[in-house]
Every structure is written in C-alpha cells, then in structure tokens.
Task: structure prediction
Amino acid sequence: MSSSTHTVKHTITPGSGYVGRQVCKEAVAKGWEVTSLSRRGENPLPGSSLDKVSFVAGDAADMELLLRLAGEADAVVHSIGLLLDSESGLGNLNFLTSGSRSVPGDKATYDSEMKDTALNLLEALKMTKRDSSRPYVFVSAAEVGWEDNKAGTRLEDLMREKDFFLPRYLDAKRAVEKELVSESEDAGVRPIIARPSFMYDATKLDILPLLPVWFLGHKLNIGDGAFSIPLRVETAGSGIVQIMDDGSVKGVVSSSDILAAAPLAAIRRPDGVDTLTSGIASIARIPFGTNVAPELTSGSGERPPASSIRIYEFEGEHRIRSAATRLTLSHG
Result:
C-alpha cells in the first residue's frame, strides 16, 4: 500500500482512543487522508497533528455509516478496547485503566464493544469489496497467544476457575481473530492481527508498576514466551502503521514484530537519555552538551513523526561508531 500514486484513505476506529490516536499521527505523517470514527467525534489533542484528521461522530454498530466509511477507505484499523466490561463488576474503574480516560456505557460488554464492532467493520468491507485487497488491522492482545503456551494456558485456566474477567476479554479477541482470518478472502481484506503486550506512557499509572515484572519475564523467557515485551504506545502506533504499509505482512504480528517494525527513535526520549547521548557525543569529540536531535527531548512539545526521525538514528549511530573507533585506535 503506497501513497505514491494516490491519496491513501485510512479509517481508524476509534482514532481518538489511546492506541488509535497514535496510529492517526503516524498515518497523517505519511500523507494519508485519515478518518476517525468514535462516539464523540472529537479531536482529543487540538493543536497537534491530529488537526489533520477528519473526526466523525457515530456508533460502530451503525452499518449505514460503516458502509459509507468502508466504501471510501483503502485501509482500516480497529482499535476499540475495553478492559473492564459491565459484567466484570469493575466497570467504574475504566476511567483509571483506559489510556484515553473513556468511560463505556452501563451495558458495555467485551462482545458488544470489541467483537461485534470489529465484525461489523469486516462485514462493511465485504459489502464494499474491491478488486484488490485492503489491509484490515485488528488490534488484539499478546495474551491471546496464551492458548498456545503451557504456562499461559495454566494461568488462564486458573483465572477461569476464579471467574476473573481476563479470559472473557481474550475470548472476544480470539473470536474476532478467527473470523477475520476465515473471512478475509471473501471480504477482500489482508488480515493483520496486531498482538501488542502492555502499552504504556507516563500517564498509565495502572500499568507502570507491572512493567518491571513484565520486562524481566520477557528478558528471562519465563513461561516459555508467556511474557511478551511491553511497548510504549507511540512505538505501537508507529509499528502498526509501518506493518500496514508493508503489503507482504498478514496474519498474527507479535509485540516483538511491532517493535521491530517501528523506527528506533519512534518514541520521545526522556531527558536522562538525552544527557547520556550528549556524553557519548562528547567522547566522539563533539562539543559537550550537543544533542543529536533536540526536537526529541521530553520537554520540546510534540515529537516529529517517526518516519522523519530516521536521519537522527543514522547520525546518532554514525557518531557512536566514530567514538568507538577512536577509542579502539587510541588504546589498541
């Protein structure tokens, strides 16, 4: 899928959500024409690159609206997520667990919010089928893969015994994945099942305490892969767009695959890392305090799009290699 011959029209539902807004930013940076469907239809970040997004207010259960949007779209992303549904008894806590601070309705279930809306979108794509396939990215979850992992299966079985909410969440995701794959040919879509692990940023206070445990579990391969690598939400958004733009990718895309697809500098670095970069630059005989990419510091406002950061990656790598070479020559 390339924007070199025509304007790529891209529909994200919801583009105002925690993941969706990051996908929107990266899609806009590619020059794609982006439409976001959400209940409120409001730009969550006025004054940012999201100003270029067309926000549409509506219900993902409205087939007439979905048919119109699907008919215009060259690609779609479904990123509607709900961690605590009405049947969990914890629905009132969604304002804490939702990255976008959205609060679902009193009757919102995993099926109504995630499964049904994703399958409605698939049906709309089928009814507006084109000669060439269109990418459909469904943002699932890494833990869906627990069914193929002994440790994950045991953990999920224990949760089912305790009537914990997570297995029902995963069941809804799995139902969409299976339908998307089985119906992809009839619907004329290239199915992409993105399975990121925990996604976070500095505002996700519910997730941050778990990250050290999850990163350690991933690093040590505890549970034979039960712990997938967590991703900054900016990295997830960037990786999803890169994968969608790669016409060879379809099927399940793991958290590690998403990380690999995203530019290395897709996230805005904290000040501490900038200080370290300046130190490395000084070793390379660059004036002390030089920042390779001042636009990427945490206090500099909105970061450049990931697609434009490659030059900083190249320059940073070049300087570090130069420093290492000089150190080797002087001590060799």
Remarks:
- The chain is about 40% helix and 10% strand.
- The chain has a mean pLDDT of 79.
